[in-house]
Amino acid sequence: MKNLFRLFLCLALLPGAVACSDDDTQRPTVIVNGGEDFLSLDGLARAGKLTVLASAPWRVTAAAGDTWFTLSPTEGPAGYSEVEISLDENKGAARSARLAFSSGDVIVPFGLSQSAQTNGHDAPDYYFYATFATMPALYAGLHVLSHDKPSYFFYSRSRTFDPDKFPSYVKVSTSADRTADATADEKQEAIREMRRRILEINNADPTAVFGLYVDDLRCRLGYDCFVEQGIDSARVKVSLLSDGTATYNNFYNYFGDAASAEQNWNDYAAEVEALDWNHGGRYPVTRAQFELDSWTWVYYLATRPGYRLVMQNSALLESSCPFITEKLGEMNIESIQPYEMLSALPETARQQFYDMAGFDYDKFAALFDASPKKNLVIIGTSHAGSASERQQYDYVARIMEQYGEGYDVFFKPHPADTSSAGYETDFAGLTLLPGQMPFEIFVWSLMEHVDMIGGYPSTVFLTVPVDKVRFIFAANAGSLVRPLNILFRDAANVEWMQ
């Protein structure tokens, strides 16, 4: 409807276009900033600019109490004009004003706002979550329970959470088919819905501060959903959630080689800065084609104001290039483990997280406490054939022989593995855990009950204390995928089994 209204306004300015009132005379038209209805400036701004396209002389007025800015000129002739905005220094809170552009009997309202200078990642009034992988969804699910602000939450892995178990302040969206991931169309519709909601909130609350939690691999949504729509970037606090091993692998692939690292960084930085971040009174134009994935932008974005990279362990980002080492120091990185976020929640919020994830904490806690023995967990893998299945069987037999007497042993099969169905019969004292169980949540919630964990190399190892990992089915640390190879290269207590 809004776009249609703009179209009518533009058509009214074309030669021969006529807008008639009841007395059959042509009514004047006024288009401000290309048809937009607000301008959002950052807390440091001292000036801005508006454009006016009018079919007749016009004037602009502000409320008598809005004295923190001046407009020049405040009236103009038909045609194209520019209005300069001068702002007093903003030493306090965010502020907003309503302007009225008039021509004849036509009045066009317009909003002007300026953010406060200091708004941290804990300052948002509204939160948006958009996740497209399991690890970011779990990070987001933990964070949304740490506050009670109005929130919009989209996750494409529909089986991660039960949408009916979220708090009442969260509007949830996921795949219509709860047995499958969201389709490409559903993802795009979720983004369009986010954009609509953001503009609705901005219209009602022009100084609102927004928080966005999004996969690091989809980092450009912070621009496309907010800044590209005219929201001042100072009012947007973006947390880029680590996808897991991809965050570390990509960093190494882009910046690990000293010969190309600096050039790659500068190239990616140039792509980001080609976007219009500081429009200063001019409505921004996206100069890059919209896309969901922007893998190369993550690390440079983490140096920009309002952005941070949330990951498991920033020490695992490595480069042999001194330039990149310097840039690492400029990046805003929060290293926090999901189990730390879970343990920081109040008990009621932790229980709600378990309900959202369909995890029966009491059942498994009782299982781990059923005997006075310590608890050992083996992580299985998927199989391409009988040889792999036999290898896993032999590994489990070795663990049972080595630790079965002193530990209660639990085996977590890969969701696609059926070869382990008879392990409880074959190995006395072994308990088979559900293959479809959300294993990350299982480990995080029962961390204090787990005395030893190991098995096939897994991203789970990134999110548990290293001293809990005591055996890995591999030749050595160098044979592991990045960043597990770095994480375990000095781990003296790990037994390598091959």
Number of separate strands: 22
Helix content: 25-40%
Strand order of the largest sheet: 12-11-10-13-14-15-16
Note the main sheet: 7 strands, parallel
Question: N- to C-terminal separation?
Answer: 65 Å
Beta-strand share of residues = 15-25%
Q: What is the radius of gyration computed over CA atoms, rounded to a whole number of angstroms?
A: 28 Å
- Helix tally equals 15
Mean pLDDT: 88
Query: Uncertain segments of ≥5 residues (pLDDT<50)?
Result: 1-24, 280-284, 286-290
Assembly context of the chains? single chain
Decide which structural class fits the backbone. alpha/beta
Shape: elongated
What does this structure look like?
The chain is an alpha/beta fold. It has 15 helices and 22 strands. The protein has helices at 2-13, 134-144, 184-204, 221-224, 245-255, 261-273, 298-301, 322-330, 338-344, 347-357, 361-368, 386-403, 423-426, 439-445, 484-487; strands at residues 30-32, 38-41, 47-54, 58-62, 69-72, 75-76, 79-87, 95-103, 106-114, 126-131, 151-155, 170-173, 210-215, 236-241, 307-311, 333-335, 374-379, 407-412, 430-432, 452-455, 469-472, 495-496. The strands form four sheets. The protein has a seven-stranded parallel sheet with strand order 12-11-10-13-14-15-16, sandwiched between helices. A hairpin with a 2-residue loop joins strand 8 and strand 9. Helix 9 (338-344) crosses helix 14 (439-445). The chain is elongated. The chain starts with a helix and ends with a strand. The model is unreliable at 1-24, 280-284 and 286-290 (pLDDT under 50).
